Amino acid sequence: MNFDSIWSNFLLEIKDELSSLAYQTWFSETKLYRIDNSKAYIIVPMPIHKKHLIDNYENLISEKLNKITGSNCELIFLLNEEIETEIEETNLVREEVVKDEHINSNLKKQYSFDNFVVGNSNKFAHAAALSVAENPGNMYNPLFLYGESGLGKTHLMHAIGNYITNNSNKRVLYVTSEQFIQDFIKTNRKDDLETNFNYVDFFKNKYRNIDVLIIDDIQFLGGATKTQQEFFHTFNNLYNDSKQIIISSDRSPNDLKVLEDRLRTRFTWGLEVNIFPPDFELRSQIIRKKIIAENLEKDIPDDVIEYIASNTGTNVRQLEGSITRLVAYSSMMGSAEINLDLAVEALKDTVSKGIGEKNDVHRIQKIVSEYFQISVEDIRSKKRSSNISFPRQIAMYLCRIMTSESFPRIGIEFGGKDHSTVMHSVEKIENEIKVNKDLANIIEKLKKDIGLV
Ligand code: ADP
Ligand code: MG
After folding, report:
1. Nearest 10 degrees: CA dihedral of 324, 327, 332, 337?
2. Rounded to whole angstroms, how far apart are CA atoms 240 and 222?
3. By alpha-carbon position, which residue is closest to atom 14 of ligand 1?
4. 123-274 CATH, one of 3.40.50.720, 3.40.50.300, 2.30.29.150, 3.30.70.100
5. Which residues pair with 36 in a beta bridge?
6. How confident is the model over 327-347, as a mean pLDDT?
7. CB 3.0 to 4.6 Å from 314: which of 32, 125, 147, 277, for a disulfide?
8. CA 180, CA 207: separation in Å to the nearest integer?
9. Which of 1-10, 108-117, 156-165 has the lowest mean pLDDT?
10. Is the pTM of this model over 0.85?
């Protein structure tokens, strides 16, 4: 509906309510100039109309107008000659809004290269990110980062954005694909008189007028075909201008079946980097770094760090959660000293959840105990008698070769042994198998029973 037809509808309604003299005098020569930003600009013929309409008819006009447009507008009465100044002012306001949004890069300052801990599993992703940060638009375009949740993709993307912002005048925009969808949907509100015009401009300004576009979790763009098309155009536009595009996803472009082929193909034009789950070493380092960052170092001993690194899985977000939980637990207990016992207690829900999902260690313990006719409690205990410690060594050996658990993690599952004891046991069994055929046969049988290979 355009403004003229809104106004003729409005006048018809008003006519019914008023005497014909009142209508003729006060309304017949009015006009709706526009509705913008919840403001209705109404043109009146003489200054006296302004005052009279406000004093006598404001509520009635609002009510009728709102009924037709479905939105609550502030009424602004203008003379013809006042339009220009008024418009200039609103344009200024609009430009400010767009600029403000535009300046907002959505970058989170706390994510930097400095506080990103590098290890085997993420060193390639880190190196690629750094190259792009140092040379946006020239090195790898687009940069496509992918990997499971909680491995540092978002962190690296913000780090790139912050680096570029700190070292150049380039304009960076970080958005999640949900934000992109939201912004795009707004441009399609053809009937939304208040916002339609604004948002098309706003969208173009926001997504075309930048040097670096960072778009997080692109897998969520799936399903929205029109949005995919728009993203395709946005991508081409930026790409053709040598603007840097950085994309993340939980899977590789090839596996992003929810997206159109032409998009997936474009994602492979630059560099694809897979970020892997951190190994035990890196997990420990990350925990240490987080502790230092939080000024908690003196309070958390090494065996606790090892315990967290071994038992909280490979998701860094969960590692952080465990530290927070542990610290909160300690303060709840009246600033209790953080030691292994406290950690085991504080994290028991988190840890047992991990075990419940898939625990091959427990399975191995059960099968080995049954074979040697001892109890599972014994094999998991600290008891040293040889009828228990020998099966325990075998079970530790089997855990090592049949699961991906680390030495420290295995140690914890077997009465809290430290990792060197586990290593020693594993070596001992390895050597013995070579010279003891009976033992080799037993191990083969156990392996079959466990059935993981
Ligand atoms: P993703 O986007 O891959 O799901 P995030 O980037 O959100 O993961 O990371 C989750 C949390 O783990 C964040 O708080 C992040 O700072 C932290 N994190 C992940 N990897 C590292 C790392 N290598 N060094 C330091 N912190 C990390
Ligand atoms: Mg993320």
Report:
1. 160
2. 24
3. 317
4. 3.40.50.300
5. 39
6. 86
7. 277
8. 9
9. 1-10
10. no
Q: Helix, strand or coil for residue 72? A: coil
What are the residues whose beta carbon lies below 5 Å from ligand 2 (ion)? 153-154
Between the ranges 4-8, 20-24, 178-182, 284-288, where is the mean pLDDT highest?
Answer: 284-288
Q: Which of 78-82, 103-107, 152-156, 343-347 has the highest mean pLDDT?
A: 152-156
- SS3 state of residue 452: coil
**What's the rounded Cα separation, in Å, for the pair 200 and 6?**
22
What is the number of the ligand 1 atom nearest to the C-alpha of 282?
Answer: 23
Confidence of residue 358 (pLDDT cuts 50, 70, 90): very low
How many angstroms separate the CA atoms of 121 and 145, rounded? 13
Instruction: Indicate whether 315 pLDDT > 70.
Output: yes
Q: Is 449 in the pocket of ligand 1 (CB under 6 A)?
A: no
CATH topology for 360-450 is: Chromosomal Replication Initiator Protein Dnaa; Chain: A; (1.10.1750)
154 C-beta closer than 6 A to ligand 1: yes
- pLDDT, tens digit, for every residue of 80-118? 888 777 766 665 555 444 444 445 899 999 999 999 999
**Domain edges within the chain:** 3-100, 123-274, 280-352, 360-450
Amino acid identity at 283: R
Q: What angle do CA 258, 262, 263 make, to 5 degrees?
A: 60
Q: Which atom of ligand 1 is nearest to the CA of 126?
A: 23
Decide whether any atom of ligand 1 lies within 6 Å of the 318 Cβ: no
Query: Which two tokens mark 211?
Result: 């040097």
CATH top-level class of 280-352? mainly alpha
**What is the pLDDT at residue 356?**
35
For residues 206 and 203, give the distance between their C-alpha atoms in angstroms, rounded to a whole number. 5
What pLDDT is stored for residue 146 in this prediction?
Answer: 95
Query: What per-residue confidence (pLDDT) applies to 357?
Result: 35
Q: Which two tokens stand for residue 75?
A: 């009424």
In the chain the first and final C-alpha atoms are separated, in Å, by 69
Amino acid at 162: N
Q: Would you state the pLDDT for residue 4?
A: 86
DSSP 431-442: HHHHH-HHHHHH
CATH architecture assignment, domain 3-100: 2-Layer Sandwich (3.30)
Separation of 248 CA from ligand 2 center, angstroms? Answer: 8
Atom of ligand 1 nearest to the CA of 149: 4
Is any atom of ligand 1 closer than 6 Å to the C-beta of 117? yes
Digit-coded pLDDT (tens) for 43-72: 998 888 888 898 889 999 999 988 888 778
pLDDT band at 198; cut points 50, 70, 90? low
Does ligand 1 have an atom closer than 6 angstroms to the CB of 142? no
3-state secondary structure 130-181: HHHHHCCCCCCCCEEEECCCCCCHHHHHHHHHHHHHHHCCCCEEEEEHHHHH
